[in-house]
Structure formats: C-alpha cells, structure tokens
Automatic annotation (TrEMBL):
One of the primary rRNA binding proteins, it binds specifically to the 5'-end of 16S ribosomal RNA. Belongs to the universal ribosomal protein uS17 family. Transmembrane segments: none annotated. This is Small ribosomal subunit protein uS17. Gene3D superfamilies: Nucleic acid-binding proteins (2.40.50.140). InterPro entries: NA-bd_OB-fold, Ribosomal_uS17, Ribosomal_uS17_bact/chlr. Part of the 30S ribosomal subunit. One of its GO terms (biological process) is translation. GO terms for cellular component: cytosolic small ribosomal subunit. HAMAP family: Ribosomal_uS17_B. Pfam families: Ribosomal_S17. CDD domains: Ribosomal_uS17.
Length: 77
C-alpha cells in the first residue's frame, strides 16, 4: 500500500528537527451543499532543519518517530 503524501504550510519550526505543518482541505457539505474548509496540523520530521515558517512543503507518512511524529518532510525535487 502506498504511503500518503500531503501538501501543507509550515506554521512552526521552533523544535529541533521537527516542523508543524497545517494541511487544509475543502469539501462539499452533504446537506447544505456549501464548500467547507477544514485544516489539521501534523508534526513532521525535518532532519536538516531546512523548512521555515510559511514554506509550502510535502510530507509523507512514515513509521512512528516519536510520540507525535508520524510524518517526514519529503525532499524538494
């Protein structure tokens, strides 16, 4: 089964080798038929500390790295 890959914006880079990424999604409400926007934050592993606040990054699912980290920063192509 392939690993999930999400695109999001870095909202925090305070921690060493960790970034917090906000992933936004939009969907149509099943009853109201309006577009609803939701966001979720993910802790991602950033080995080289390259990501800064405001950067748009891709994160990939991984085995647990710590209590909260289950995602790693994908290297830019």
């Amino acid at each position: 089964m392939p690993k999930r890959v999400l695109q999001g914006t870095v909202v925090s880079d305070t921690n060493d080798k960790t970034v917090v990424v906000r992933v936004d999604r939009a969907f149509t409400h099943p009853v109201m038929k309006k577009t609803v926007r939701r966001s979720k934050k993910y802790h991602a592993h950033d080995e080289a500390n390259v990501a800064k606040v405001g950067d748009v990054v891709w994160i990939e699912e991984s085995a647990p790295i710590s209590k909260n980290k289950r995602w790693v920063l994908k290297p830019s192509a």
